[in-house]
Amino acid sequence: MTSGLLLAAQPPAAAGINLIKNPGFETPGTGADGMPDCWSRSGWGDNDFTFTTTSDARSGSRAMKVELTRRVDGDRKALITESAACAPTVAAERQYDLSLWYKSTTPDAAITLFRHDATAGWQYWTDLKTLPVAAAYTRAEVRTPVVPPGTDRIAWGVSVFGTGSVTTDDYVMEEVAPPAPDPVCTGTAEECAKGKWEVLGVKNPVRSMHSVVLRNGKVLLIAGSGNDPEMFRAGTFTSAVYDPANGSFKTIPTPVDMFCAGHVQLSDGRVLVMSGNKGYPSADGKIGYQGLKDSFVFDPATERYTRTNDMHEGHWYPSATILGNGDVISFGGLKEDSTGNVTAEKFSAAQNKWLPMNEVNQTWSYWGLYPSMILMQDGRLFYSGSHTFGNGTPGTGASIYDYDANTITDVPGLRNKDERDESASVLLPPAQDQRVLTIGGGNNERNPVANRLTDIIDLKQPNPAYVAGPPLPQGLVDQGQGKRPQTGDEGKMFVSAVLLPDGKVLETGGGLHDRADPVYEASFFDPVTNTYEAGLAADPVPRTYHSSAFLLPDGRVMAVGDNPGNGSYNHDVSVYTPPYLLKGPRPKITSVIDGRWNYGDTQRITVDRPIARAELIRPAAVTHSSDPNQRFVDLPLSVIDDRTVDLNVTGNPNLAPPGWYMLFAVDANGIPSVAQWVHLGGPAAMAAEAERSAHVHDFAGDLAAAPKKPLKKRDSVPVSPRIAGCDRHYGSAGVCVPTVFPRSVKATVKARCDWLADHDYGRLKVNGKDDPLRLDPNRDGTACGKGDVPRNPLTGRDRP
Predict the structure, then answer these.
(1) What are the φ and ψ backbone dihedral angles of 62, each rounded to 5 degrees?
(2) Rounded Cα gap, residues 145 and 798, in angstroms
(3) Is 487 helix (H, G, I), strand (E, B) or coil?
(4) What's the CA gap between 25 and 29, in Å, rounded?
(5) Partners of residue 250 on adjacent β-strands
(6) Exposed site from 69, 427, 751, 798, fewest CB < 10 Å?
């Protein structure tokens, strides 16, 4: 045990060579701006400022004073000159300890880093540490994240983004000692390379479509009627709470049909559940799903639902995004009459209720079903293009919505925008990087094979655009006749994407066609290298429609659900152990001095051995491949000693909306601790003040497309009752005979009936007199029944 601990430990930083030239501003410069040698004026925005080389020094005779006397937006900073002669050289995969001495009259100051990429040039990297007001010289120190590949130099300084002044002196930058060698694998060689799945002996007791990791580490699984019309007619609506500590499930009384509702974690840890299913489609296909306007909160402490006020209208399949002030905004879905909902709804955290429509900005736009709306660092929303059902999205398929200006601006580059049904979009680690990955997807109207497309957008760019990422790795697919390797452009929809504490993204599960043909494949996406690590262990349980995968506080991933078109449901529960849990002993967080964190805080923890990084991960609230609130927030370290670390908390609530988070400490080998729960936010007034004073950068500030103004007020948009891609002439409302069969299925009775048989549809009643798919030629009321497939009189076999 001792040898394992020593092997996994990272040596502490040792005092070394100061890599900064002219660290105390003592050498004057030669430029007209009067800045000292190797220092430059930097900043942006509408503000009045001065840069002064002052004699009020901590040591020597000179220091640098930056002062803002008026500010509307932006910042000013004295920055190490971005040149080969001045900017310190760094090595990829290494870390550096930064320190300086400062005096400040404003709380709005932070250490800001820029990095030079050998290909892309100089670019903003990250903010590391907020500096409290200090009347006397005070030392600030912080450790950089691991230097990304391709970075050869960095530059840094103190950004001042509020009225007041900051005087700095005696800058130091030292390289941290290299990490120890990789630890010894504690599993089999294959497990240590690919991880391992376990199918639990206990079954999920409900047909859950929604999965929420609660602030106590338990998991809320919401089914409602579970896509079962019989349960709907009986008024049997269910939820369950799973406790990973003892492997038990507890069923929870559920007041309404929360099947295909929206949900989000509120800042106090309760779960807001909005809308759901008021009614299933009619047997004749003339009426589609109908949305509820009911709304409830689930309290993890009491494990009970409590009604809130109603939403303005029904929203079956709504979005749900928490904002920097704790409010929740929701778009899209279907109304009570099955039409498309064009109204935005806003839940006020302060008032604990949905606001009346006259208090919510409206564009009267139809965003579709489960539109993926991701909060950006400046409070705007990025619609990634991921959605469920329906296609033909307007414009480029992705856009930025500015709530305050009430405008929508398209962003380019999303490939095959109308084949993004049941794709997944995630804000990549860390949230400070503001990059979004969109994975796979399909089209339930044309039913082609799901695609392998992955697209990445960097929202830090002035005019961001999606660029092509690496193709999704391929695995095995089962189309009802046994597993075979995927070929060509075959990818998957219904994919799950899970942010992991080592900074990678696990993608798992999925299917080749709408509600059919599970794909057994899993991979890691590495945001640092923009590459996939293919060939991981695959979940042995099919995970297509109505499946979820999510991170547990112990660092494992849990997967539930599978509801294919034949109406069945898989109650097996799988748990994935990533390779990082098979690399030896885990670091431990031995104490969290304060579990209630405010924005801009420095919070001290103790650990049992050195760590390389720490982060907050927002617990999952996932359904239909969608969790727009999932995020990984980096916590820059100020290392006191091997066992004591100060964590520097972002001052921007838009990067980490208020609420409960899992705090992970991770060593140099990527091995995470078990998470500790911490609450970020503080009083509502404090959170609001933090949002106003946060260091918000000028990202996505020069969009090429013209902003779209609000449309004329309207009640709704027409939506086809067949938007779910199911032909209701056959079977019950819980069964989905595809409106369009996969392209590989010939348009003959035999081919279609064979496909239905391969996918275990069983006997299907024909609803009414119409038979649009020609599945009941003998018109006995049973699709693909006896006598429906003609036989060859010579051979006695079915005709093709």
Answers:
(1) -140, 150
(2) 66
(3) coil
(4) 9
(5) 241
(6) 69
Contact yes or no for 254/261 (Cβ under 8 A): no
**Among 334, 360, 241, residue whose Cα is nearest residue 280:** 334
Quote the pLDDT of residue 392: 85
Quick: pLDDT tens for 589-640: 999 999 999 999 999 999 999 999 999 999 999 999 999 999 999 999 999 9
Q: What percentage of the chain carries pLDDT values higher than 70?
A: 97
pLDDT of residue 1: 29
15: pLDDT strictly greater than 80: no
Q: Which two tokens stand for residue 262?
A: 């929206």
Residue 402: both structure tokens together: 């500015």
Residue 799, pLDDT above cutoff 60: no
**What does DSSP say about strands 295-299 and 483-485: parallel, antiparallel, or unpaired?**
unpaired
Specify the length of the chain in residues: 800
Q: What is the largest CA-CA distance in the chain?
A: 106
Mean pLDDT of the chain: 94
d(CA 323, CA 777): 55
CA dihedral 157, 159, 165, 170 (to 10 degrees): -10
What's the CA gap between 594 and 251, in Å, rounded? Answer: 34
Residues 288/277, Cβ–Cβ less than 8 Å? no
Q: Per-residue confidence at 8, pLDDT binned at 50, 70, 90?
A: very low
The predicted structure's pLDDT at residue 6? 28
Q: What CA–CA distance (Å, rounded) separates 24 from 558?
A: 52
- Confidence band, pLDDT 50/70/90 cuts, at residue 686: confident
In 446-601, beta strands by DSSP E: 454-458, 466-468, 476-478, 483-485, 496-499, 505-508, 511-513, 516-520, 522-526, 531-533, 548-551, 557-560, 573-577, 589-592, 596-597
Q: What angle do CA 390, 761, 223 make, to 5 degrees?
A: 60
Query: CB atoms < 10 A from the CB of 17, how many?
Result: 9
Looking at the predicted structure, is the pLDDT value of residue 796 above 50?
no
SS3 754: helix
For residue 678, what is the DSSP state?
E
**Residues 204/573, Cβ–Cβ less than 8 Å:** yes
Instruction: Read off the pLDDT band of 792 (50, 70, 90).
Output: low
pLDDT of 7 > 50? The answer is: no
- Return the DSSP state at 118: T
d(C-alpha 798, C-alpha 750), whole Å:
8
Q: What torsion do the CA atoms of 269, 300, 622, 695 make, to the nearest 10 degrees?
A: 10
3-state secondary structure 398-465: CEEEECCCCEEEECCCCCCHHHCECCEEEECCCHHHCEEEEECCECCCCCCCCCCCEEEEECCCCCCC
Q: How many CB atoms lie within 10 A of CB 358?
A: 6
| CA separation, residue 4 to residues 183, 196, 480, 517, 582 (Å) | 7, 22, 47, 44, 12
DSSP result, 215-280: TTS-EEEEEETTT-HHHHHHT--EEEEEETTTTEEEEEE-SS--TT-EEEE-TTS-EEEE--EEEP
- Rounded to the nearest 5°, which phi and psi values hold at 792? -75, 120
Per-residue confidence band for 16, with pLDDT thresholds at 50, 70 and 90: confident
Q: How far apart are CA 445 and CA 796, in angstroms?
A: 36
Chain segment 474-517, per-residue pLDDT in tens: 999 999 999 999 999 999 999 999 999 999 999 999 999 999 99
Q: How far apart are CA 91 and CA 72, in angstroms?
A: 38
Pairwise CA distance, residues 333 & 185, whole Å: 48
CA distance 508 to 308: 35
Distances (CA, A) of 444 to 265, 281, 422: 30, 17, 9
Alpha-carbon dihedral sign for residues 74, 76, 79, 83? positive
